[in-house]
Amino acid sequence: MSGYRTNIPAAVPKVRVRDLPLGSCDTHTHVFGGSIKYPMPYVPNYPVPLATPEIHLNMLEILGITRSVVVQPTQYGSNVDLLIDALRNSENRLRGVAAARSDTTDEALQTMQDAGVRGLRFVHAFLPNGKLRPGAIPFDEINLLSSRMNSFGWSVNVWAQLPNIMENIETLLKPNLPVVLEHIGMVNVEAGLDDQNFVKLLSLVREQRISVKISLCRCSKLPPKYNDLKPFVDALIDANPNQLLWGSDWPYIRMIGEEPDAGELLDLMKSWVDGDDDILEKILVTNPEQLYGF
Fold it and tell me: Average pLDDT by consecutive 10-residue portion of the chain (294 residues)?
């Protein structure tokens, strides 16, 4: 339990973004409650920001954004009590991406649906010893859950390194459900635009077979301007802006003291679409509405 604390204040935006389209959405945020009311089944060895549902909604107000998709952290495993509470107390401003296993009951899934869950998260991420990250729901659960996910119209949300995604792409696509890659598919900027995994990613985006979240801080080697990621984002926009979303990744776990400002990230994304209001509307409003059912 070394390092497990949730009394470290979550970073709040200092920059309020102006002139956003009505109904703009941050599609990748998390909530972390206090350890007494919402104990973590998988205790990390690093500090966790205190990011309660109330603090989360305040963050959105400061940022100047209307909606958010709250994504289940791996530290909570498939215990979605905190996520459900956040959704139920959001005045319909939030949607959720939960975590579930094949033995999750129909009743539990229905409870998630009623609260505002619109997808499940699957994580193919490993520790240095080669073991799956504690709390992660692996890809082999997708097919076991797919028929029930389909009945709700839910999406498959994926966190993994891009090579691992492409190695398992048939598993992800086989259920014929919407597939959403977190953190720009965890592209390797050092591999460049000609990397065959990224070329395949562009093809799938072009064919409308997957969607991608533009979340910068987990892939870039050059914060705070993230110039190394701009060519990748430009290529994705050129491929198909109808398949793109924006996410801040607030409250930035494992980045204590180096958290980006969510407002600066959103302003940067706005500048990268180069004043194209139609593309901005798609990324911030239309695409999230279609995928997450606002």
Answer: 59 87 97 85 86 95 95 95 96 96 97 98 87 90 97 97 97 96 96 97 98 94 94 98 98 87 94 92 98 95
Does pTM top 0.90 for this prediction?
Answer: yes
For 8-292, give the CATH class: alpha beta
CB 154, CB 119: distance < 8 Å = yes
Q: What are phi and psi of 164, to 5 degrees?
A: -70, -35
Per DSSP, the residues of 151-167 read HHT-EEEEEE-HHHHHH
